[in-house]
UniProtKB/TrEMBL annotation, chain A:
Entries under NCBIfam families matching the protein: soxG (TIGR01375)
SUPFAM superfamilies: Folate-binding domain
Membrane-spanning parts: none
One Pfam family cited in the UniProt record for this chain: SoxG
Organism: Tianweitania aestuarii
Protein name: Sarcosine oxidase subunit gamma
The organism's place on the tree of life at top rank: Bacteria
TrEMBL record, chain B:
Region (Disordered), start-end ranges: 98-127
Biased composition (Basic and acidic residues): 116-127
Coiled-coil ranges per UniProt: none
InterPro entries: SoxD (IPR006279), SoxD_sf (IPR038561)
Domain of life from the UniProt record: Bacteria
Gene3D superfamilies tied to this protein: Folate-binding superfamily
Protein name per the record: Sarcosine oxidase subunit delta
Amino acid sequence: MVEAITVKRRGALDHRLETINGVSLQPAKPARRVSLRAEPDGLAPLSKALGLDLPTKPKTSALADGRSALWLGPDEWLVIDESEDAEPLKDLAEVTVLHSAVDISHRNVAIIVSGSKAADVINAGCPQDLGLQAFPVGACSRTVLGKIEIVLLRTAPDTFRVECWRSFADYAFSYLSDAARGV
Amino acid sequence: MLLIHCPYCQEERPELEFRNGGEAHIARSRDIAAESDEAFEAFFFIRTNPKGLVYERWRHIHGCGRFFNAVRDSVTDKFLRVYKAGEPKPADVMKNLPEHSAWENIPPADQNVETPARDRVSTDGEA
Ligand SMILES: [Zn+2]
């Protein structure tokens, strides 16, 4: 007799949710993520396949239909798509110009940090200027948070998305909640 | 914390995002097998390590990930110039320097300064 086995994927930050001093920390929804590398001649066809204009200006991102592309370097982007049936990798597979697209959906997890003091909380471990002038809505950057590397995206004046590697998720969440206690 | 201008990100970013990559403008031989032991040693191990202007590779490792070159003063730690990898060594860094610079790689004997005393006499009450 064969017993049915059900397997359930557990997120690294399941059931963690905190609001401290008006700053809320919550795990972001599961998302499709692609690490995309390409030379300038790939920009147009890749943008077309993704349905958004890949940003070429440092520290900027593009957003269309729930899909974002974050400029990480002169030839490197992080594509994040939270829609249920999104398949950015499939969309990119049609592009014939030389590029590299790697699915890193499960390498990263994200924490949404929001509240009027969200920037202060992140600044507890991130040395970048997060004032609205230096880091406006839509700005994104690979940077550091305490001892780990993160990708930071400002989605609203008081909301940030902190992307980190899955194995660092616990550290990042605890770091941010400790920081929130101090603001 | 130092702020270092990244030529790719086109802005100053905190030094925690960067990693030093050693001396810049060291060309690898196109035919490394034909190098003499002495030439290989010089290429592989010997660095100028001057007191003053140093030409270094830096990597914006926790940012755009790119290597670039920088001219830094090893005395003051001040970054005088940054430029993209592959661009030639800037020839004019020595110009436009502030007047009273210790950066000009002048041998100590040629500088009109007194040699600092090596032994300090400790005084009571001093930590
Ligand atoms: Zn950079």
